[in-house]
């Protein structure tokens, strides 16, 4: 750009580029001699360049400051990280969608307050996480638009009197636009904090998933077998198989949350414009990216390799009166007000609990005694399989609706098992 506006000659540009490439190769190989007395990485590189190509190297810093250069570099790094994490999120979504072929038709108990509530298809559960990670992807994409604004050329504080072409630089580096105010340019890290927030929500979603699967892998639930490669044994109890990767995923969420909090506190009292406090921003963001990336990579593998314990699930599927809400809605369909229907079915559940039987084992006389509308057709909605088939609303666990959603997700993600 400096050459295009006449600040550098073509020959000077060639010298600078050659010198910088040599320095980059030495840094990559670990042979570059960093010197403590030269303040920072910028001055080390500039001094090395001057030693290689002479006074032409002193022109490198024209029209910019370390302030806007750091902001530019950080944005470039975050932009690349967003793209990489987006790929990892897609891989995790595919792992869930690819389960849908082998788990089709499997019914799980759904919970609220960790109490059995209503039956759901396993595929409905898998797609619930696809939706969460899709919103994470959308947040990253939205964040990327604000990250992808070029600060370079705004210099230290007020801009520069040199007739530079910032738009040319933006085009060369793939930025969508220019940071419009030179004081704002290097003084804020809202783009980094927004990225850290998006990473925190990803970590929270991973932690929720990990917590559920930790519970599911216990003897008390026995819903799930976590792949042995992602578990460890006990040092003293030979029967133990501990879901360590899931526990670490849950635990490492605390680091990501802490990093976000540290960034928010870091900038809370900074005056315009640049302050050296901002040097503390990168370690937090780097750590969050490393942590979330590792958790996403492992999550995709765990999801792909886990196996549902179908026998254990089905053996207790009728426990907990999962079909009670469907029976209540049957009464609503017969014209009974919702609150009245709720009370009637509640009494029937209480009666079944006393007898130690599911609702479907109550007699027709008991149903008729509770309400005349509860005729022999109730047995067509009782039981988890009938209850599942009764769902109709968009977004529900209706087999038809879920099949539609699975097809949409496969098309969207290009899932392997089409």
Question: What does it look like?
Answer:
The chain is mainly alpha-helical and 418 residues long. It has 3 domains: 50 residues, no CATH class; 250 residues, Fumarase C, Chain A, domain 2; 90 residues, Ribonucleotide Reductase Protein R1, domain 1. The chain contains 15 helices and 8 strands. α5 links the parallel β3 and β4. It is elongated and about 100 Å long. The two termini are 49 Å apart.
Percent helix, as a range, is 55-70%
Second-tier CATH architecture of the largest domain: Up-down Bundle
Distance between the termini: 49 Å
Mean pLDDT across every amino acid position: 95
CATH class of the largest domain equals Mainly Alpha
Which radius of gyration do the C-alpha atoms yield? Answer: 30 Å
Structural class: mainly alpha
Low-confidence stretches: none
What count of helical segments does DSSP give?
15
Taken as a percent bin, the fraction of beta residues is: 5-15%
What gross morphology would you assign? Answer: elongated
- Tally of domains: 3
Strand order of the largest sheet: 1-2
* SS elements, strand count: 8
- In CATH, the homologous superfamily of the largest domain goes by the name Fumarase/aspartase (Central domain)
- The sequence of SSEs as H and E is HHHEEHEHEHHEEEHHEHHHHHH
Based on the model shown, name its key terms:
about 60% helix, Fumarate_lyase_fam, Fumarase C, Chain A, domain 2, two-stranded parallel sheet, lyase, about 425 residues, Fumarate_lyase_N, mainly alpha, amino-acid biosynthesis, two-stranded antiparallel ribbon, 3 domains, Ribonucleotide Reductase Protein R1, domain 1
């Amino acid at each position: 750009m400096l050459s295009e506006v006449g600040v550098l000659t073509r020959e000077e540009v060639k010298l600078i580029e050659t010198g910088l490439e040599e320095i980059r190769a030495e840094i990559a190989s670990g042979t570059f001699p960093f010197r403590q007395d030269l303040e920072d990485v910028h001055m080390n590189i500039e001094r090395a360049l001057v030693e290689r190509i002479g006074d032409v190297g002193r022109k490198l810093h024209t029209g910019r400051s370390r302030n806007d250069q750091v902001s530019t570099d950080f944005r470039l790094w975050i932009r690349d990280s967003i793209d990489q994490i987006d790929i990892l999120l897609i891989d995790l979504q595919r792992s869930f969608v690819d389960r849908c072929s082998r788990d089709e038709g499997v019914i799980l108990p759904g919970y609220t307050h960790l109490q059995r509530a209503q039956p759901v298809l396993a595929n409905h559960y898998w797609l619930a996480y696809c939706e969460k990670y899709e919103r994470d992807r959308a947040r990253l994409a939205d964040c990327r638009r604000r990250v992808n604004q070029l600060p370079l050329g705004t210099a230290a504080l007020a801009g520069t009197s040199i007739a530079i072409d910032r738009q040319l630089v933006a085009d060369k580096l793939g930025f969508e636009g220019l940071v419009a105010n030179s004081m704002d340019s290097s003084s804020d890290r809202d783009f980094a904090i927004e990225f850290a927030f998006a990473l925190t929500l990803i970590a929270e979603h991973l932690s929720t998933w990990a917590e559920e699967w930790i519970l599911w892998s216990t003897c008390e639930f026995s819903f799930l077998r976590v792949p042995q490669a992602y578990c460890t044994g006990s040092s003293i109890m030979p029967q133990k198989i501990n879901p360590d990767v899931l526990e670490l995923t849950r635990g490492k969420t605390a680091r990501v949350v802490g990093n976000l909090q540290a960034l928010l506190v870091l900038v809370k009292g900074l005056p315009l414009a640049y302050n050296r406090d901002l040097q503390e921003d990168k370690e937090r963001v780097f750590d969050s990216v490393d942590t979330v990336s590792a958790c996403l990579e492992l999550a995709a593998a765990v999801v792909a390799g886990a196996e549902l314990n179908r026998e254990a699930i089905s053996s207790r599927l009728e426990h907990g009166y999962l079909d009670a809400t469907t029976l209540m809605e049957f009464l609503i369909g017969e014209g009974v007000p919702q609150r009245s229907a709720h009370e009637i079915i509640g009494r029937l559940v209480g009666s079944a609990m006393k007898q130690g039987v599911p609702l479907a084992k109550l007699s027709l006389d008991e149903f008729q005694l509770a309400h005349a509308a509860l005729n022999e057709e109730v047995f067509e909605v009782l039981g988890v399989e009938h209850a599942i088939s009764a769902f109709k609303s968009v977004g529900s666990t209706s087999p038809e609706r879920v099949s539609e959603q699975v097809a949409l997700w496969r098309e969207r993600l290009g899932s392997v098992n089409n």
